[in-house]
């Protein structure tokens, strides 16, 4: 029987990819050099740089603001833009991203329905203030019992230790807890290594990594009753 549910945040409950796409499109139209870059190509390059530099932020080797500046410096350099504009472009991206912040469709209703039955927590590889603010802005914080982030935990998914911290806060045994997330290695494999059951949030309908056993899968967070049943039945 399921006695607790954990969620990843970005691109599982919070629409990070959509917010980033909106912000990049605004930046692209405001910059003469970036305006000629195909949106898909810009998004792919930005996502790659974000992942690379985010790792530096998570281990404390680079402050967040410096990483954001460096991300856009490299983007501008790739397409012949003025690197001196990196700070201004980074700030414009940040402002548009913050204005666009939103939960994925069905997230609030899902957390409310689950929270009426079991405690719910978030496990995220990110900075605490950043993720706590996303939850508040999206109205999700009132449904969440605990927020565990790699910045404060000192470890990141897929390390089993970060899941154990969340289990402690939920007062739940690993075998009675389900983890829902979009990243196979961090969320699915990481949760399984800590003894949790896992549900893959896979709206892009990707194939599991070769050799991996299938797990229960969601392609959307709606309809609420059906998603709740999938999550609770997985335990």
β-strand amount: 5-15%
Summed over residues and divided by their number, the pLDDT gives a mean of: 94
Q: Main β-sheet, in a few words?
A: 6 strands, parallel
Spatial order of the strands forming the largest sheet:
3-2-1-4-5-6
- What would you call the shape? elongated
Low-confidence stretches: none
Short structural description:
By secondary structure, the chain is an alpha/beta fold. 51% of the residues lie in helices and 11% in strands.
Structure overview:
The protein is α/β, with parallel strands linked by helices and 235 residues long. The protein has helices at 16-30, 39-58, 64-78, 86-100, 107-115, 128-137, 150-153, 160-170, 184-193, 224-233; strands at residues 4-7, 120-124, 146-149, 177-181, 197-201, 217-218. It has 10 helices and 6 strands, in the order βαααααβαβααβαββα. It has a 6-stranded parallel beta sheet, sandwiched between helices. Strand 4, helix 9 (184-193) and strand 5 form a beta-alpha-beta unit. The longest helix is centred in the first third of the chain and has 20 residues, at 39-58. The model has no long low-confidence stretch (mean pLDDT 94).
Give the helix/strand layout:
Layout (H helix, E strand, L loop, with lengths): L3 E4 L8 H15 L8 H20 L5 H15 L7 H15 L6 H9 L4 E5 L3 H10 L8 E4 H4 L6 H11 L6 E5 L2 H10 L3 E5 L15 E2 L5 H10 L2
Parallel strand pairs: 1-2, 1-4, 2-3, 4-5, 5-6
Helix pairs in contact: 1-2, 1-4, 2-3, 3-4, 5-10
Top keywords for this entry?
single chain, 235 residues, alpha/beta, 6-stranded parallel beta sheet, 6 strands, 51% helix, elongated
